[in-house]
C-alpha cells in the first residue's frame, strides 16, 4: 500500500535526521510508489526514466499486428531451442551462408528490449532460419506459421522504429552514475522520432501513437527542474535538444536568478555571523573568521572541495 510506504519513508527520514531537509525520491512508475511519494511529501519525486521507456515501448509493441508478428517469431525461436537437430542444421546453414554463429534469442514479457533483440537477431539470421526450416533434415512442428514477405518487411520497420529506444536504454543501463540531467535530452529526441510521418506503414503509425500516449506528459511536472539540471551538465549545457531559443534563454535567465539568490543568502549569513560576533564582544580568532568565510563562499554553497593555496604551502615550508 502506498500509505504504508509513505509512513516508512517518513520514518527513515527521521532516523537519518533529514526530516528538516528537502528530500528527493526516485522510484519506478508503480501506483503505490507514486502514492507513497505524495503521502511522504517528498519533492521532487523522480520516476525512473528506464522504467518509463520500458512501459511506453511495451504499449507500442502490443499493437495487434505487431503482437501477432512477435508471436510468430517466438514460435520459430522456441522450435529451434527445443530441437537439437534443427539447431545443428541451423549452424551448418549459417556456415554455408557465412553468417555469424549466433543463437536465436527468446524474449521476456517484462522487458521490451528483449523483444527488440529477438527481432533483430531473427532478421540477421533470417536467410539461415528460412533455409533450415525448408530442409528435409528436420521435421517442422505443426502449427508453426510460415513467415510472409509482409512479415519480413514489418520486422525491418519495427527494428528501425525501436532502435533509438534501444540506444537510450543501453546508455542509461551502462551509466555508472546516472544523473537527473540525462532525462530531458532523451524524451526530447524520442518525441521527434515518434512524430507521425506520411511515409509510415499504418502499423508503424499505430505504434508511434501508442508510444506517445503513454510517454508524453510523464515528466511535465518536473520539466523546469530537468531543464535546469541539463543546463548545468557540461554534456548538455547548450540545450541542443531544445529547438526554441526563447525557452533556452528563459532557462538560463532563471538559473542566473537562482545563483544570485544563493549569493545573497550567503551574504546574509555572513552579516548575521558578524553581528553575533559583535554582540559577544568580537571574541573570535582570525582562524575562525577565515574558516567561516571560506565555508560561506566555498564548499557549502558551490560543492567544490577545499583546495590548498600557494600561500598555505609556503607557510608550511617556512614552519
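^ Assign residues to that structure.
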Amino acid at each position: 500500500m502506498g500509505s504504508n510506504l509513505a509512513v516508512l519513508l517518513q520514518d527513515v527520514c527521521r532516523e537519518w535526521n533529514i526530516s528538516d531537509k528537502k528530500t528527493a525520491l526516485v522510484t519506478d512508475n508503480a501506483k503505490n510508489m507514486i502514492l507513497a511519494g505524495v503521502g511522504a511529501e517528498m519533492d521532487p519525486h523522480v520516476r525512473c526514466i528506464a522504467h518509463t521507456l520500458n512501459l511506453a515501448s511495451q504499449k507500442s509493441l502490443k499493437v495487434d499486428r505487431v503482437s501477432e508478428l512477435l508471436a510468430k517469431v517466438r514460435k520459430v525461436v522456441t522450435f529451434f531451442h527445443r530441437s537439437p537437430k534443427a539447431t545443428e542444421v541451423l549452424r551448418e546453414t549459417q556456415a554455408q551462408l557465412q553468417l555469424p554463429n549466433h543463437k536465436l534469442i527468446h524474449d521476456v514479457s517484462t522487458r521490451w528490449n528483449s523483444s527488440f533483440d529477438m527481432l533483430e537477431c531473427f532478421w540477421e539470421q533470417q536467410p539461415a532460419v528460412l533455409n533450415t526450416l525448408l530442409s528435409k533434415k528436420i521435421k517442422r512442428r505443426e502449427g508453426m506459421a510460415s513467415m510472409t514477405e509482409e512479415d519480413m518487411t514489418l520486422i525491418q520497420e519495427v527494428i528501425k522504429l525501436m532502435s533509438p529506444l534501444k540506444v537510450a536504454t543501453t546508455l542509461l543501463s551502462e551509466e555508472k552514475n546516472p544523473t537527473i540531467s540525462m532525462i530531458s535530452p532523451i524524451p526530447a529526441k524520442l518525441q521527434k522520432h515518434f512524430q507521425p510521418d506520411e511515409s509510415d506503414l499504418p502499423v508503424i503509425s499505430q505504434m508511434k501513437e501508442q508510444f506517445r500516449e503513454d510517454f508524453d506528459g510523464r515528466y511535465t511536472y518536473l520539466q523546469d527542474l530537468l531543464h535546469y539540471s541539463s543546463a548545468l551538465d557540461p554534456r548538455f549545457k547548450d540545450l541542443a535538444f531544445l529547438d526554441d531559443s526563447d525557452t533556452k534563454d528563459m532557462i538560463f535567465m532563471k538559473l542566473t536568478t537562482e545563483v544570485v539568490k544563493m549569493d545573497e543568502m550567503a551574504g546574509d549569513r555572513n552579516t548575521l555571523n558578524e553581528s553575533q560576533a559583535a554582540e559577544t564582544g568580537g571574541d573570535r580568532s582570525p582562524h575562525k573568521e577565515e574558516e567561516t568565510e571560506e565555508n560561506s563562499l566555498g564548499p557549502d554553497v558551490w560543492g567544490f572541495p577545499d583546495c590548498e593555496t600557494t600561500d598555505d604551502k609556503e607557510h608550511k615550508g617556512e614552519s
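The two ends are 64 Å apart (CA to CA).
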